[in-house]
Structure formats: C-alpha cells, structure tokens
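Notebook, bench 3.
Goal today: get a predicted structure for UDP-N-acetylglucosamine 1-carboxyvinyltransferase from Polaribacter marinaquae so we can plan the truncation constructs. The sequence was checked against the plasmid map this morning, with no discrepancies at the termini. Length recorded as 436 residues. Pasting the sequence as submitted so the record is complete.
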Amino acid sequence: MASFKIEGGHKLNGTITPQGAKNEVLQILCAVLLTPDRVVVNNVPDIIDVNKLIFILGELGVKVEKLSSNAYAFQADDINLEYLESADFKRDGSSLRGSIMIVGPLLARFGKGYIPRPGGDKIGRRRLDTHFEGFIRLGAKFRYNKEEYFYGVEADELQGTEMLLDEASVTGTANILMAAVLAKGETKIYNAACEPYIQQLSKMLNAMGAKISGVGSNLLVIEGVESLGGCEHTVLPDMIEIGSWIGVAVMTRSELTIKNVSWKDLGQIPSVFRKLGITLEKKGDDIYIPEQESYEIQNYIDGSVLTVADAPWPGFTPDLLSIVLVIATQAKGTVLIHQKMFESRLFFVDKLIDMGAKVILCDPHRATVIGHNFESQLKATKMTSPDIRAGISLLIAALSAKGTSIINNIEQIDRGYENIEARLKSIGAKIERIED
C-alpha cells in the first residue's frame, strides 16, 4: 500500500482546473447500457472508482474506446449478461458502490439486473432499499441470496407508476430514473433527488430520446419510450474537488485560482465557505482565493454559534463537511459541524486532535470546533486515511502542519481525486508518494 509524505507549512500559488465530477460520471457511465448506439462522454476523471466501473462495463461486453486522456466512447450493442452471475462479477461489483447503478439500465433494457452487495467508503450504513423498492413499484420481482449477499431484480415488462421515495437518494433516484425511461406509460417520482448530477443525467437521457420533465425539481415525470439512441455528454466539474481546493488554499494561507468551476451548479458551497470568513471572488467562471492570514467564523445574528449541517440538494453537500471541519480548526471562532446523513464520517477527528486541533466530538453526528486563528499551528503526525473525503481532509491538514506527516492507505484518496500528488506539486506543495 502506498503512502504520502507531506512537508507542511509551505505557501502555495497557482492555478488548478478541477476534474470531472465523480458522482455524476458514475451515473452517466451506467446510462450507456440503455442503448446499443455509440455514446461519447467527455471530462471523465482518471480515478480508481471510475476506472473500475469502466472495467466492469468492458467485462459486460460494452465496447470501450479511449478517445483522449479524459474522453471515451462506449457502445453497448453486444452485452454479455452471463457475466452478471459469474464469480468475477461478484468480486468486481462488490468493490465499487457505484456499480449498483447498472441495475436500473439492465432491468429496463434486458429485463434483469443483478448486483453483489456493494462496498465503498466505511462511512456508516447506506442502505439500498430505495433502489429496489422503486424497481418493485415499476413491476420488477426482487430476490436476495443471503449466503452470497447477491441482489437481483427481473421483469418481463416495466410499467410506469407513481412513487414517493422514502429518502431523496441521489443514486436511488438515478437508478429508478434509468429504469423508468424505457417503462410503459408515465412514471412520477416524488421526493426525487435534484442534485446537479441528477439534472445532468436527465439532460443526457433526454438527448438520447427520453421524455423527462421536472428536471431540477423533486418531482420527476417520465414518459416511457420504446428505445434510446446515442449522444455526446460532457461531465460537470467536481464540486467536491472544488471545495477541497478551497480548503487547500485557506489552510496554507495561499493565493489560488480554480478554473472553470460552473458557478451556477455550486449551490450553497460558496456561501458556506464565506460564513467561515473565507474570501472567494467570482472571476468569470473561476474562483479566485486571495492569500488570507486569518478568517473569522460568522455567528448567527443573535450571537449564537454557527452550525454547518448537510442536507439533500439544494442543502449543503455532506461530502464537504470534513473539509469545513478542517478549515475551522484554524479559523477565529467556533462552529458546530452536524453530519446528519452518515454516522461514521466524523470519526477522523481523532487524527486532527493528535495534530493539536481543538475539536470536541459530541456524538457520531456532531463535532464542535474551536479555531486556533493560526496562533497554534497543527503538528505533523502519522495517520491512515479512513475514506475518500476524510483522506483529502487529513491531507489538507498535513499541508498546513508544522513538520512532515505520513498518510497511509492513500488508495482511498486516489479513488476520488485525479493525479492529486502532481497537481499539488504544480502549485508548490512538498508531497511525495512512497510505495511500500
């Protein structure tokens, strides 16, 4: 397993272009299974999770052509459904949570879809009920092999219906949406997720010939069609990576420009960072972060302590709460971080406490951070990345710390961030990859 060796305390400077959005592209790649025609996808990030899904598609029989470093063409005109019941698929699919989203397209087009219980980050329970309850509402039969943790849905024909999702699950909405576009009749999905990722998927499906209305709202209406054709689609910049680069700039007190961020799709992200006292300037479609020696957390107008909490879109994304928490360790003031959606995502704070941060873990969902205002620099340490988002947060902490830190299990970071070491070096970071 590889590690990062980071010499902290150096100011950085330069320009960064964010990668394509991981959470969008995993949906988009699954959607290529809905048509036998050629689909071109641009701005595909070169990261472990995306490459795993492309490998699975290839094993399914999808023709994969790499057009450039971040562009691919896919053609699913000769699918090998036997692979779905093979030992290889049970191994391959279980290592990637995003693989769950192949089930909806396969069910819609071929009448069956199977998936082993997916893996992914160790951030608490993330149940699959929303996905399968949606498929059942569309007329599929569900089966589950408890011994092999293997799920399956089958249907001779899917029938449009109305459904109210029990949670506004992004992957659940995407999966059901991809199944419904080829169902007979009209489907209405209430309490649908409306993240930019779902909006992008809907736009792509409509470009392929689907009839989806209500895009951007929590009520999606789908008029089923007989078949879909090919298209070309460009993935949005990754809002989570954009937030991560903001964290890098702020914690190292550096000047940084983040290019082509698609401001209109960032939602509350800029305003939440501004509530922490961070200066962000909009320059065209770029974010400019000037060098800041300090930043002060805003209290509420009645003087009470600011709470930053996650919520379904258009609320603040849970994937950036760990970044906010790290930034707060050097702010002036106090903030309560409330992670509502996952019960284990705050468990990395013990590493920050080891580095000298003042963080009180109230319970699995809440942490109070008392900022140092850079009067006491974080101290370097040796630590292990527990998941993608905590991993990048610890990396940001290490870049600001006094001394040399070691981060183990960096494969977790590589799952979500493209070529992070080289990109950090390009703006002056002292970071080295160590292979065991």
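The chain is about 30% helix and 25% strand. Confidence is low (pLDDT under 50) at residues 120-125.
Flagging this for group meeting.
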